[in-house]
Amino acid sequence: MVELRLKVGPKGQIVIPKLIREKYGILTNNYVIVELREDGILLRGRPSPKQVLENLRKHREHVKKLGVKARIGDLKRTYLELEFEET
Questions:
Q1: Which residues on adjacent β-strands are paired with residue 14?
Q2: Alpha-carbon distance 61 to 57, whole Å?
Q3: 42 and 65 share a domain?
Q4: Closest listed residue to residue 70, CA positions, set 60, 80, 78
Q5: Closest CA to 33 of 84, 74, 87, 83
Q6: Distance CA 84, CA 87 (A)
Q7: Do 24 and 45 meet the contact criterion of CB atoms below 8 Å apart?
Q8: Residue 9: which domain range?
Q9: CB within 8 A of 20, min separation 6: which ones?
Q10: C-alpha to C-alpha distance for 63 and 57, rounded to whole angstroms
């Protein structure tokens, strides 16, 4: 596991190094997802609407192949309310 030490500025801001932003799709003026966990926080780039639709399509195909009905929680990592907000 790689560990980075980042300095927190006076307003609580940190700078995410460019290589990391590019690798995880964190783009300028876009949003990130912050997930609170017992052992710390998880910071993720938010997938594009195109990626969300592709994930939903794949999930639907997977469920069809299994012959089961979708259950609550199956898409818990898909944040539809964030993906389709108006700009």
A1: none
A2: 6
A3: no
A4: 60
A5: 83
A6: 9
A7: yes
A8: 1-46
A9: 4, 26
A10: 10
pTM for the model: 0.52
Same domain, 31 and 58: no
- For the segment 32-45, what is each residue's pLDDT rounded down to a tens digit? 888 999 999 998 88
Number of compact structural domains in the chain: 2
Structure tokens at 61: 């195909």
Q: Which amino acid is at 26?
A: I
Strand pairing report for 40-45 and 32-37:
antiparallel
Residue pLDDT, tens place only, 6-35: 999 999 999 999 999 888 888 888 888 889
CATH code where residue 41 lies: 2.10.260.10
- Long-range interactions of 8-16: CB distance < 8 A, separation 24+: 16/43
- Is the same domain home to 7 and 39? yes
